[in-house]
Amino acid sequence: GVFSTLSDRLTTVLQGLRGKGRLSDADIDATAREIRVALLEADVALPVVRGFIAKVKERAKGAEVHQALNPAQQVVKIVNEELVNVLGGETRRLNLAKNPPSVIMLAGLQGAGKTTLAGKLARWLKGQGHTPLLVAADLQRPNAVTQLQVVGERAGVPVFAPEPGNGVGNPVEVSRRGIEEAKAKQHDIVLVDTAGRLGVDEEMMKQAIDIRAAVDPDEVLFVVDAMVGQDAINTATAFRDGVGFTGVVLTKLDGDARGGAALSVREVTGQPILFASNGEKLEDFDVFHPDRMASRILGMGDVLTLIEQAEQHFDQAQAEKAAAKLHTGQLTLEDFLEQMLAIRKMGPIANLLGMLPGAGQMKDQLGMLDEKHLDRIQAIIRGMTPAERDDPKIINGSRRLRIANGSGVKVSDVNDLVNRFFEARKMMASMAGRMGFGGGGGGKG
Ligand code: GDP
Predict the structure, then answer these.
(1) Transmembrane stretches, by residue range (predicted)?
(2) pTM for this entry
(3) Which of 234, 381, 398, 438 could form a disulfide with 337 if both were Cys (CB 3.0 to 4.6 A apart)?
(4) ipTM over the 0.90 cut-off
């Protein structure tokens, strides 16, 4: 899609931060510079990039250190939140009239994808239980009316087209009569497809303004091709200052051009993005969710979910206690079980692993990859007495057999867990020592 390159770049920049224990202002500046280049190369408008970078820097430098997040996660979180802001924050729903029919007018340049969008929107609205009527007021482009009739048929939505007596040749008249038709036939939403030109021109704008005045729409949706680059910004500004619009629809997000301009539309025009089109088929269409789009662009859907969950579920006191013990080599199986349960509350372990500092090594040591294995580990630890959890060395042969039988595993599994636990504890303690957490391999292990 149009954001793939940007997504790759941002992902790489942010991944570069992983594993850093602390971010200096210089680190943040360097990261901000890389993000800036990525955004500019993706065609995001300069003022938008400037504002974005300034906010990210300011927030990253002043960030309250949230104990649940490492510095890299902190920056990912900030970048994500600012991206959501640029894209409009909350999802903006369609405004519908209290007294139907609601009128939605589509405006934009020729080729932007208005007619296709009319079909998509009609199909989608019908799926939501509405009874839309499409009105063909694009009398400019040859075939536009026929094309609307074709998509209308595919969407299973009737089309009001100019015919003799319907206001042939006069798009304002066609629109007006279309609304009359909708009232007469009890359609609750009217979608008016209007004419575009290849570029912004006065006559087109005047026609759009006249149609708007005639139909008094509840929404005017500006349809913009995400592949056209910086020109999208100029076009959007011209439409805003001309006919005016209440919302934006991005089309051709499936394309391979750079789509950064589309990311700038909301910030530049101040109007929200309501829908996104990503293909030629009628189903290739969705409500635009700024948060989902941001996490898609960051290529970190899972990570962002994890960050949210970590913030919600994190028990700081418990984690600090465990960390302190870990660093001094005093971690017990009881602590380990507690931490494991806390982590598992957050979701499938495979998603979490990459994000946990030091998890790479722990994964190898403890073979923590699949959920079944985790279930087994939990069962084994639960089969131990508190004293045994505290100091697994005291578990003798017959106890190992009892624990194995009690938790439905083999004795070798119990041995494995105990041995790996010792190894891991030793390793973590020496790692902590090397990383300057103090402690080192002491403790009672
Ligand atoms: P209009 O002049 O604004 O009414 O634009 P059209 O609806 O005729 O669309 C122009 C061209 O873009 C057509 O070939 C459409 O099939 C194509 N198109 C529209 N929306 C999309 C989209 O989301 N993705 C892709 N790949 N093509 C699209």
Answers:
(1) none
(2) 0.72
(3) 381
(4) yes
